[in-house]
Amino acid sequence: MTQRFAFHVSATDGRARTGTIQTPRGEIRTPAFMPVGTAATVKAMLPESVRATGADILLGNTYHLMLRPGAERVARLGGLHRFMNWQRPILTDSGGFQVMSLSGLRKLTEEGVTFASHVDGSRHFLSPETSMQIQRLLGSDIVMAFDECPALPATDAEVAASMRMSMRWAQRSRDAFGDRPGHALFGIMQGGVTRDLRQESAEALRGIGFDGYAIGGLAVGEGQEAMFGVLDYAPGFLPEDKPRYLMGVGKPDDIVGAVVRGVDMMDCVLPSRSGRTGQAWTRRGQVNIKNARHADDPRPLDADCTCPACTGYSRAYLHHVFRSGEMISGMLLTWHNLHYFQELMAGLRAAIAAGSLDAFVADFEAKRAQGDIDPL
Amino acid sequence: MTQRFAFHVSATDGRARTGTIQTPRGEIRTPAFMPVGTAATVKAMLPESVRATGADILLGNTYHLMLRPGAERVARLGGLHRFMNWQRPILTDSGGFQVMSLSGLRKLTEEGVTFASHVDGSRHFLSPETSMQIQRLLGSDIVMAFDECPALPATDAEVAASMRMSMRWAQRSRDAFGDRPGHALFGIMQGGVTRDLRQESAEALRGIGFDGYAIGGLAVGEGQEAMFGVLDYAPGFLPEDKPRYLMGVGKPDDIVGAVVRGVDMMDCVLPSRSGRTGQAWTRRGQVNIKNARHADDPRPLDADCTCPACTGYSRAYLHHVFRSGEMISGMLLTWHNLHYFQELMAGLRAAIAAGSLDAFVADFEAKRAQGDIDPL
User: Fold this and answer.
1) How confident is the prediction for chain A on average, in pLDDT?
2) Pick the CATH number of B6-268 from 3.40.50.150, 3.40.50.2000, 3.20.20.105, 3.30.230.70
3) Where are the CATH 3.20.20.105 domain residues in chain B?
């Protein structure tokens, strides 16, 4: 296992790339989907089960962890990997996005953000410097620069002003991060859906220099068409030899569209959150397991899926345990969803390596167009 | 694997016995603790994890399953084993006890009980004949006779009248069960805490003839001393060559006291229910993981335990995920509790086989007397 952080592209197909990120805690196969372990757990899953789905890396949320159990406590307990029993790579976000979306009573200045905890109302301060310190205490392998993402709708002037502050914060993040061999710092491009602002942001980040580059400020309500519009050009503003991470994406078709456009990494709560609300994702689209049509259906969710939910249980069982409010419902559906998302990533990687991404995407779309299996 | 139901005692130590129950679906090592899978799931566990704790058999609740998803539906879907993905033996209760404790609007006659579902208020009827039919539809390996357990407090006359009706119901259960090779029917002794009534009940059951005999009507609020008082004589009223099943028991010290008194099988929701409310059971007693003293404790729940919760996580983590309302809290603590209960049963079996049960019990009590580990 290497002690250095490094990224290698092994094959390309159009703008899509496949490769590996080397870290001291293990290899990340790209394009990679990162399950979200907000509060030091991927909800409804044991970490060995998350690994069994094929995940190489998890995302942890700085905002949640700094509030509960607290970054200093995690550090005293040996760091986040040991705390949550996940020895492979962890990426932590900077806390910036979630402060704006989850906390109360915020005050934003050039220095940083003062906010009230959604857990107990206590006052906290996040800045590039404190975010770097917290992510260091957590022990994350991939640290995200502290940024700000303006709430939509926003004028071009607001988006530009916010992006420029984020770029100043990116420089402060870089300075505060220092030199940490084996750990990586990623900058975050902002600029909304405006090409010039995206380009300006990318140039600012490249000037500072990062180990990887995230595309932030998308998947925040702008819609898939607008998102793909940005992804048609934004990855091209970033260095070829560094990973590109699209934050907070997404649905299976968002993922495919992003990979086709040159994205290497993604994260989303969707597979786990959907699993807990009775929503399953399969190659033939979305299935709402609480629908009465499943009550007597002896067939698996997806006959071609090898996950525990599909190999061990009928739709009738999954329907029954969801309706009965049983925890196994969230456990099995989350497992299935994460399995499907990872299988999709593996398929994308193999197709890029084989130079057959167009055929893979056509097959992906054809299966989705079939819709769920016929009623009994 | 045998196609017949059979019980063999391989060793005794005082009144305690160890042996095996053979069934077409596998062997049950006795004394056995049966985790409860009320609604076709042991809450917060996958069935392969339940098996990994050492469970040979599960209990399913006829009352819950007949209401949701319905016994006919389970039968159409291939039976309860296939439905819930547990291929080993299942014992189902008769529904009698839970109708009285959970349902609404009951009417009890010699014929049976009419009641309203706690799920949707719909009207249902349970009798010895319908209970046998439902348990057959579910496909359970060990079927319980339909009985009635009077609510406490009750006069001796009320307990006697109820017991005698249960004995008439036992005969009707036997008649309705018929001849089902490989499946067993257990009678249930009633009679409260009155020795003469317990003896009368046992004689009635022996006269009918069953594959096993349960001791019912205990662990319903009479207290451990009164329960042990009955267990000092009641198992002796039952045939030596058939399994004796104490229903609804219990805490670890209840289990040890029951095994010492000649009980072969038990069931209880305690390990799984406790796990979901932050209560852990260890060889040193009960631990309330939500207590603030665990927040910074890097030690496992029980350093000598080999379950996933104890080998992978600190008390601090278990405390954090409980306080954060994360599902992994119930998943890990339930697993630990079931593991501990099964380890206790394995220890009891080994001690009986070795003729060292007294020493085992002394050690069990000494460890409990130590109490939980010292605060940090």
Assistant:
1) 96
2) 3.20.20.105
3) 6-268
Token pair in block for residue B160: 């006697």
Question: Which residues of chain B, if any, have pLDDT below 50?
Answer: 1
Q: By the CB < 8 Å criterion, does A208 face chain B?
A: no
With CA atoms as reference, the chain A residue closest to B87 would be A312
ipTM: 0.98
Span A70-80, mean pLDDT? 98
Give residues 22 to 61 of A whose Cβ lies within 8 Å of B: 39-41, 43-48
pLDDT single digits (tens) A140-180? 999 999 999 888 789 999 999 999 999 999 999 999 999 99
Contact A308, A275 (CB under 8 A): no
**Taking CB atoms and an 8 Å cutoff, what residues of chain A touch B78?**
298
Residues A31-69 pLDDT 10s: 999 999 999 999 999 999 999 999 999 999 999 999 999
Secondary structure of chain A in HEC code, one letter for each residue: CCCCCEEEEEEEECCEEEEEEEECCEEEEECEEEEECCCCCCCCCCHHHHHHCCCCCEEECHHHHHHCCCHHHHHHCCCHHHHHCCCCCEEECCCHHHHHHHCEEEEECCCCEEEECCCCCCEEEECHHHHHHHHHHHCCCEEECCCCCCCCCCCHHHHHHHHHHHHHHHHHHHHHHCCCCCCEEEEEECCCCCHHHHHHHHHHHHHHCCCEEEECCCCCCCCHHHHHHHHCCHHHHCCCCCCEEECCCCCHHHHHHHHHCCCCEEEECHHHHHHHCCEEEECCEEEECCCHHHCCCCCCCCCCCCCHHHHHCCHHHHHHHHHCCCHHHHHHHHHHHHHHHHHHHHHHHHHHHHCCHHHHHHHHHHHHHHCCCCCC
Q: Comparing A105 with B32, which gets the higher pLDDT?
A: B32
Chain A partners within 8 Å of B39 (Cβ): 320-321, 324, 326
